[in-house]
Amino acid sequence: MQELFQSYINYLEVERNASPYTVRNYKTDLLDFFNFLREKKVGSLTEVDKHILREYLSYLVGQNIVKRSIARKLSAIRSFYRFLQREEIIAVSPVANTTSPKLDKRLPAFLSQDEINRLLEAPDLSTPQGQRDRALLELLYASGLRVSEIASLDVEQVDFETNEIRVWGKGAKERVVLMGKPAAEALTAYLKKGRPELLGGKKTSKALFVNRYGGCLTERSVQKLLERYAGIAGIKKRVHPHMLRHTCATHLLDGGADLRVVQELLGHASLSSTMIYTHVTKSQARKVYLSAHPMAKEKRDENK
Predict the structure, then answer these.
(1) pLDDT higher than threshold 90 for residue 257
(2) What burial letters (b/e) apply to 14-31, b meaning 16+ CB within 10 Å?
């Protein structure tokens, strides 16, 4: 079982080119499943059937595991058994007809225009770290990049003539994202002054966003920076990198962007992933309604 597990992890990392986050989650979820099988004296993966799977799902529910986590664990098991079929170790997957728990629809949290403006103004531009962090925040909001994508950016991936950035997202799929003038200006200022100061004039690095040791910023570092600046900006919400991705998508659609364009910019494989952002704030919905519906005008010409 251990050998098959390791082969599967290698498959995820090498052939599927899954993100470190995905690999970590799948490892954790599968090891939990294997522990359950050991407790039930199941000695081989070929012994697993739909009854054992149902028992495992019942066990998770009994442990008060939330539906979303249960669905993720089941997805990891399903992927693992597809791999076993691919390797012709099993003929039929016991997970094939097992349905995931129905999830409650959860709209992504995003920042208002006022909140995002306060967040972007939070870094101290008199320091090289502040110049870096302003550029980082501007780019996260402008491009909708995933934290893994922005942390791994190299300087050469940015084209300032076209304000385009070439990135490699999930599954090593290449795409081009755009940045507006504020993000381009913040990046230019950081590259001219802040980044050389952080590098100390002696070190060389391909990384776009570097720490004071000249190495690239980690995903965890980006998360901590966002938490700190959210506090400085007086934002009460828990701000994380993916929230800026949500904010970018929401503000694009609220501004009239085409759904397909947003899908391409975010790198979503399915349009359904992008459609969740079609929600709008109450004030925006009211504004559109009052301006569009002839019987909803707040002031009407009584002579007509």
Answers:
(1) no
(2) eebebbeebeebbeebbe
Q: Among 232, 225, 246, which Cα is nearest to 109's? A: 246
β-sheet bridge partners, residue 174: 168
279 is catalytic: no
How many CB atoms within 10 Å of residue 259? 15
Contact, 250 vs 134, CB < 8 A?
no
28 band by pLDDT with thresholds 50, 70 and 90 = very high
Distance, in Å, from the CA atom of 166 to the CA atom of 153, rounded to the nearest integer, reads 9
> How far is 180 from 142, CA to CA, in rounded Å?
6
Amino acid making up residue 258: D
Catalytic residue, from 73, 134, 246, 268: name it. Answer: 268
How far, in Å, CA of 211 to CA of 205, rounded? 11
Catalytic member of 73, 134, 146, 195: 146
Domain ranges of the chain: 2-86, 113-282
pTM over 0.85: no
pLDDT beyond 80 at 253: yes
- Rounded to the nearest angstrom, the gap between the alpha carbon of residue 148 and the centroid of all alpha carbons in its chain is 8
For the domain 113-282, what is the CATH superfamily, name and number? Answer: Intergrase catalytic core (1.10.443.10)
Quick one: fold of 2-86? DNA polymerase; domain 1 (1.10.150)
- CA angle 237-238-240, nearest 5°? 125
Residue 89: the pLDDT is 87
Q: What is the three-class DSSP state of 154?
A: strand
Pick the catalytic residue: 195, 245, 246, 251? 245
Angle at 82 between CA 66 and CA 149, to 5 degrees: 65
For the chain, list the strands marked E by DSSP: 158-159, 164-168, 174-178
Q: Which of 232, 150, 132, 275 is nearest to 191 (CA)?
A: 132
Point out the catalytic residue in the list 27, 40, 67, 170: 170
277 tagged catalytic: yes
